[in-house]
Design goal:
The structure is a single chain. The chain is mainly beta. About 5% of the residues lie in helices and about 60% in strands. It contains three helices and 74 strands. The strands form 18 sheets. The chain has an eight-stranded antiparallel beta barrel with strand order 67-68-69-70-71-72-73-74. The radius of gyration is 35 Å and the shape is flat. The chain starts with a helix and ends with a strand.
Amino acid sequence: MKNLLVYIKVAIVALLVTVAFVPAVAQNYEELELTPQLLSTLEKYDSFDEEVYDGLIIVKINEKEGCVNTSGVEVVPCKYDMVYFFSEGKTVVSSNGKKGFVNNLGVEIVPCIYDDAIGFHEGMASVRLSDKWGFVNADGRLEVPCKYDVVWAFSEGIALVLLDDKYGFVNTKGIEVVPCEFDNVQRFGNGLIEVRIGNYENGKYGLYNTKGAEIAQCKYDEIESLFEDIARVKTIDKYGFINFEGKEITVCKYDDAYDFSDGMAGIKQNDKWGFIDVTGKEVVPCKYDKVYGFHDGFAQVVTNDKWGFINTKGKEIVSPKYDYVSIFENGMAHVMIGERWTGKRGFVNTDGVEVVSCKYDDAQDFKNGLAVVRRDGKYGFINTHGIEVIPCEYEDAQDFFNDCAAVKQNGKWGFINTKNVVVKSFKYDDIYNIEDELLMVELNGKYGLVSTSGQEIAPCKYDEELNHLSNLTLVKSNGKFGFLNNRGQEVVPCKYDYAEPFKEDFAVVKYNGKYGYVNTIGIEVVSCKYDYAESFEFDLARVKLNDKWGVINSSCQEIVPCKSDVVDRYRITHRVTVISEGKCSRVDINGICYFSHDVTLDDIAWIFGSWGTKDKKHLLTIDSINAIDQATIVINGKSSTLQVLMEYDKKVDKYFVACYDSSKKGTKYQVDFDKEELITKSGTRLSRVINN
């Protein structure tokens, strides 16, 4: 049992190792773009990959794998049992149960002598001999001997390793810069590594640098992350600070502490708060009931439930006299007297001067030198000197843009300038922000567009609230849909029975019961001829005609004719999976077919997953380990493993999943692709079930 637990632990940690290498593999990946010449070359192989790694395509012939380049030249000979993904110009290969490395020129830099290997990262790759791991360099030399139980990927010149349940770090020369003596290690920032001796609850923490020097001994109960090159530490419920060189700028003597910001950190002692600077000097003595972190050189402080401000020199620029103060924004801060939501508001500046007395019921932040304020239920505007440049006489108001603001009077919205002169009469029932330069307005239940300067762009004649996206606005008039541009022009006239917002420069439209597409200049690039159409995604869109699916690309070419039973819409990434007439094919954006083979259970599982009734008592679950020819059927809680074949019946134009056990023919399931259901012989429908 003990050995089993060890193997399980190592397996779990090894999984983390694999995850750590994913970025190195993924960065060299790109989709294969087939040309007729390349396709002709690749057809001589039994199979080939759909992706290109470091300019190479993995191919297979006679059960052996190799690589060809994008010109079709075989760079890595087909002599390996398996070729894995490339990383940093090299790939893992296997032969006779052993693994090694070849580069993208086909040179075997590491012979197949290792029991396992994982791709390169920062010029180092992990390899395993028996049950121990080490690292080889880009020349194939074993720089870190295979003696560790688990290793992680190199990052910033060092790698985490595990030996006999103790963690450490090694460098590219195999030197343990942090010895394998610790129960936990992790990167800390600024070239530092946090180490721990003991368990999580009672252990002690210290710091090393990446060169192997001990910066801080393992004597702290906690070490927080660095802020401004200073870390907060804790010992026996007391807080202090150390710098990135490990020097204690203040011993652990405070009851609580904040991280540094603007060169200051809040500290608490005897139930009172103050501040220290980066040298540990108490710039502000512990005399406040509460303090907040510095922001733009100022901090909020509280005494006897009253708020004020101090600067980084500890000077009270605003004595604690308000019931609330906000942080400074654009040189001004809200101050309030009274209850939080019902008190009176004003403003102070960074000199501590109350430029606006606390007389307003509400006040917004300053925008373009003016702020919206409310008093006695009416709205107006003040400037940064506290002068009410526009009196509080409006029922509602929005911020100024382009020297104009939308305001409401007698139940109607209009526009004024900074001189309080009406530039657009009060006639709109409501107004909504669409973007900084564009507003939607409502008048008598109809909608239109105006600019933030009050200029009417589109009259209020549209039936519904406008859907604005990608500089085009979806509108509806007399029950018909169209699109406006930001100048109010109907680039797509309101003639369609239905339309969707633009996506990837195309919009789905419907006319006389049929679907098509328009582009951003209003041209119907795909005529309304389909029974159904979907929005574009990755330059491809699904369409349906006569209960059959097809695909069009962004050039409006029907790359998959509407003759297919299934088109995989969930994994469209410039390619689609198509099932038609008992064949499964993969087609790219240009309509080139990458492969075509008989439909298998794997293809069905790829698209639909597993099926079961809504009560989940009857369930056909795809076995993810061997999904091509094996499945698990679960009925009333009892499961059986069955052999599975995909069958296509041309007479009824349907697919079937036929299950067989060792003694008799199993149940046959009909596939209803449109509803994504399986149908038993008795007519029971099994729906797709997720996360069983």
